[in-house]
Amino acid sequence: MGETNNVLIKMAGVKKVFLTDEVETHALSEIHLQIQKGEYVSISGPSGCGKSTLLSIMGLLDSPTEGTYLLNGKPVANLTASERTRIRNREIGFIFQAFNLIGDLTVYENVELPLTYRGTGSAERTQKVEHALQRVGMAHRMRHYPSQLSGGQQQRVAVARALVGDPLILMADEPTGNLDSRNGEAVMELLRDLHRNGSTICMVTHDERYSHFAERTIRLFDGRIVEETQGAHIGA
Amino acid sequence: MQPLIQLRNLEKTFDAGGQKFFVLRRITLEIQPGEFVTIMGPSGAGKSTLLSILGMLDGAWSGEYFFLDQPVHKLSIKQRNELHKYNIGFVFQSYHLIDSLTVYENLDIPLSYKNIPHKERASLVCDTLDRFNIVGKKDLFPNQLSGGQQQLVGVARAVIQNPKLILADEPTGNLHSAQGEEIMQLFKRLNEAGTTIIQVTHSEKNASYGNRIIQLRDGWMVNQDTSTAAHSLQ
């Protein structure tokens, strides 16, 4: 499968060591990982296994101690801080467990946020925000504030915000962690639909029920990849 | 002096299976500029709802609400949003910072929704970083900060444009006591410099920083001028 030019994420020998009170913690060791364009990958494992650290490095929120990381064919190690910021804001759409919406901005403004940092013209912004909200079924709540929405609706708005700038990849960190199972399921179905329409998704979850929504599951334990499962996705 | 806030018989209800439930009942109150008011009461008493209404995040209520000379009850959603944006800063229990944006970018968010030239935005953000002593943290992400530092950024973002009013919903609820105290001291200084503050809290200690307590119970104001409340029961 996959020619090399379809590789979106390529990590080789990635290692992350944290120093706290002179104790070395090896959060990640010897991570070799590739994600192709259009894939839906889930990273699972018990808490403390390093999955969120791995996602942080992938999302340029953190840097590896050792190893190489190519994002869309380019090494990220030599990027300046402002180049990293630029790539983070443009090429990566983040979805967080706690939604990360700002309570005193409307739904529309929350979704518009990533576009305000890149000089998109106002007509194009409106069109993109409305389109993103339609894709997650929240266009009718544009002028509401987050506190007026249910948790499931808030997470759908967060998905719209992640989508709005047409990123290369969506990165979701425990996107169902704050939701009951019905709303969790709905968000997972939404991600699956996005994937079917071409989005590349990398999701961290410790919930076995949900890792099966992805087409490939990478299992981490003690900072190492211990298992990879292909084609476990459900539903047709 | 003109009150900053005047509520007259403000009520909020919701329907559940054809039955009407009251979240807030006949709230009548005035808040003067420069006050530091605490809203207290058991869970479900309507505290956060009242704060949302004062902050114009919730428009589904009846009664009258004047913000300075503006009749909020007569304004359109768009006008309310504008009024809120230029006059009110919000501080949330869980900070509401964006994890994929740096401290600098998080501070810039409220400015990006106003017509402020780029250069002026940058200088406002830098001034604020300076004022809150967090210049060294400007390129860090929220998850690289302690809870107390994250809330410091939360407060800095709320006041970056010198709002007339700060609304804080359990601002120290996620912090341990030393960090919580720092945030309260910060509110005290902002209040002494002239900013009106309304906070919701369960903590008597936090309430002691304010000059007045409003007690809510089952949607009613219970401590202030109870005779009025009793009278209006007909």
* Terminus-to-terminus distance of chain B: 32 Å
Name the shape of chain A in a single word: globular
Q: Which residues of chain A sit in consecutive blocks of at least 5 with pLDDT less than 50?
A: none
As a whole number of angstroms, the C-alpha radius of gyration of chain A is 18 Å
Percent strand of chain A:
25-35%
Question: In what range is the share of β-strand residues of chain B?
Answer: 25-35%
CATH class of chain B: Alpha Beta
Task: Provide the number of structural domains of chain B.
Answer: 1
CATH superfamily of one domain in chain A: P-loop containing nucleotide triphosphate hydrolases
N-to-C SSE series of chain B?
Answer: EEEHEEHEHHHEHEHEEH
Question: For the residues shown, what is the average pLDDT of chain B?
Answer: 91
Tally of DSSP helical segments of chain B? 8
What does this structure look like?
The complex is a heterodimer of chains A (236) and B (234). Chain A has 236 residues and is an alpha/beta fold. Chain A has a domain of 163 residues: 3-Layer(aba) Sandwich (Rossmann fold), CATH 3.40.50.300. Chain A contains seven helices and ten strands. The radius of gyration of chain A is 18 Å and the shape is globular. The mean pLDDT of chain A is 90. In chain B, the strands form two sheets. In chain B, strands 6-7-8-3-9-10 form a six-stranded mixed sheet, sandwiched between helices. Chain B has a four-stranded antiparallel sheet with strand order 2-1-4-5, covered by helices on one side. Chain B has a single domain, classed as P-loop containing nucleotide triphosphate hydrolases (Rossmann fold, 3-Layer(aba) Sandwich), CATH 3.40.50. Chain B is of the alpha/beta class. Chain B is globular, with a radius of gyration of 18 Å.
